[in-house]
Amino acid sequence: MLILAFDTATDLATSALVADGEILGERVTRPQSLLADVDELLCEADLAASDLTAIVVGTGPGSFTGTRIGLAVARGLGVALELQVAGVSTLEALGAGAANAFPVIDARRGEVFVLGPEAVRPEDVAPPPGSICVGSGARRYRELLVARGAEVPPDDSDLHVPRASLHASLATHFGPADRVEPLYVRLPDADTWPA
Predict the structure, then answer these.
(1) ∠ CA(88), CA(123), CA(147), 5° rounding?
(2) Digits of tens for pLDDT over the chain (195 positions)?
(3) Which domains does the chain have, with CATH numbers?
(4) Which one of 51, 94, 114, 156 is CB 3.0 to 4.6 Å from 47, fit for a cystine?
(5) DSSP string, 58-111
């Protein structure tokens, strides 16, 4: 099985080509570069989009815009290439990066996303004893989490990145592209105009 996996829910976009569990290539850039990253991965592996057999996309929670970018690309490619798509939580992928990992994503507005998934104030995060807090929220609220007994890897650690290859390894349920739903957790920041 040749899987294209990607996640754009955080400030860093990750993408990977995975063939039967073997990582053929992986990128870490920005969400706006996703399509260029996918093209480069395919070219470097001497493959074409028509060689793909499935897509895995990160469903958040994270940035609303970033999450929508990933889902739109997954749905578009899934429909165009007639591929099955699986969604994997960004939090779950972060948590799969290390033993005892406790994923914490910066949710902005003075909140973080944690497993549940839910949005909570950083001071309300209670990492289990011996846990390693990973993700953009762990980097941002390092002092608070360390004071609560958690370990937080250095800011440049790969453990803070929701690796697309981990998404591919966690995917279990593939289906039609339009059935993959985002995990927004809370309402968007933008207000709607009254009708």
Answers:
(1) 100
(2) 999 999 999 999 999 999 999 999 999 999 999 999 999 999 999 999 999 999 999 999 999 999 999 999 999 999 999 999 999 999 999 999 999 999 999 999 999 999 999 999 999 999 999 999 999 999 999 999 999 999 999 999 999 999 999 999 999 999 999 999 999 998 765 555 555
(3) 2-90+162-179 (3.30.420.40), 92-158 (no CATH)
(4) 51
(5) E--SS-HHHHHHHHHHHHHHHHHHT-EEEEE-HHHHHHTTSTTEEE-EEEETTE
